[in-house]
Amino acid sequence: MYLFQKYCKQKSDIAYLTVGMAPGGWIRIWFKARDEKTDDYVSIEVAKAQLKGSYDDTADERYKVKNFENWGKYYIYWQLHGIPYEAWANNEKEYDMYFDFEKPNPKNEVTDPAYSSLDGTYYFRTPLDSLLKRKLPADLVAVWKSKNSNVYYDTHVTFPKNFSKLVEERKFKKVIITLKIEDDDQHGILYLTSGNKKEKLLRFKNYPSKDSVLGNSDFTKEIEYFIK
Predict the structure, then answer these.
(1) Rounded to the nearest 10 degrees, how much is the dihedral formed by the CA atoms of 100, 105, 108, 111?
(2) If DSSP codes are grouped into helix, strand and coil, which group holds residue 141?
(3) How far is residue 154's CA from residue 141's CA, in Å, rounded to a whole number?
(4) Which of 10, 46, 133, 210, by CA, is between 20 and 30 Å from 73?
(5) Between these two residues, 161 and 216, which has the higher pLDDT value?
(6) Pick from 157, 146, 152: which is nearest to 209 by CA?
(7) Which residue from 195, 159, 209, 164 is spatially nearest to 179, judged by alpha carbons?
(8) How many whole angstroms separate alpha carbon 193 and alpha carbon 137?
């Protein structure tokens, strides 16, 4: 009741409870409401539990066999990150996140990135060049327009498997991710920046968008990681 009283001071204010269920039997409940100071939605965890379960041997075979035929484009994600039980068991840490995508690429029209954390928290159209408290990305939607045409490039990029471990070990106070689009318009490099130091995270190939709705792309298969 305290949370509703704090954030819903007028009858027109809206708040709600969200229930999340994840592999391993984890169930979590969040209170969500808009913060009048920042005009952004706050998400406060109010309950968490692990339920006991049992194995269902009668489930359809497609749910048991992990391959590209059954999982589609998400099989690429699973091959790298697997099923991150620890993300739901321990709760992911939040950092001051900053996406520096526009300044390094003044001739490309770069779209605000959307991304998901390991536990499935989805951040839609994260504003560029804004410092926000967020969980680290596990995959990110990279969208930009060609410098010399009206072609949009659109792909999902999977972050290195141990990205969160790296950030934790470095004890960064804020996480700055920089994108540099190469001259061919199709390749991009993501950097992790801290102070005056810029470290390569990965290099990937982007592809011309096949969908009128940007962000519905597949995961890029041409990607090189520089951290392990």
Answers:
(1) 0
(2) strand
(3) 7
(4) 133
(5) 161
(6) 152
(7) 159
(8) 15
Residue 105, both tokens: 């690429």
One-letter amino acid of 135? K
Provide the token pair at 67.
């391959």
As separate numbers, helices (DSSP H) first and strands (DSSP E) second, the chain gives 6, 13
What is the rounded distance in angstroms from the CA atom of residue 167 to the CA atom of residue 172?
6
Question: 185 with 179: CB under 8 angstroms?
Answer: no
Average pLDDT of the chain is 86
Of 7-21, 54-68, 210-224, which one has max mean pLDDT?
Answer: 210-224
Is 108 in a helix, a strand, or coil?
A: coil
How far is the C-alpha of 190 from the C-alpha of 180, rounded, in Å?
A: 7
- Structure-block tokens of residue 107: 């001739």
**Rg from Cα positions in the chain:** 19
Query: Which amino acid is residue 214, in one-letter code?
Result: L
pLDDT band at 10 (very low <50, low <70, confident <90, very high): confident
Closest to 100 measured CA to CA, from 12, 188, 205, 211? 188
Per residue in 138-155, pLDDT (tens digit) is: 999 999 999 988 899 999
- 6 backbone dihedrals φ, ψ, rounded to 5°: -70, -40
The 10s digit of each residue's pLDDT in 40-58 is 677 788 888 888 877 777 8
Q: What is the pLDDT of residue 1?
A: 67
Q: Is 137 exposed, middle or buried (0-12, 13-18, 19+ CB in 10 A)?
A: buried
Residue 39, pLDDT > 70, answer no
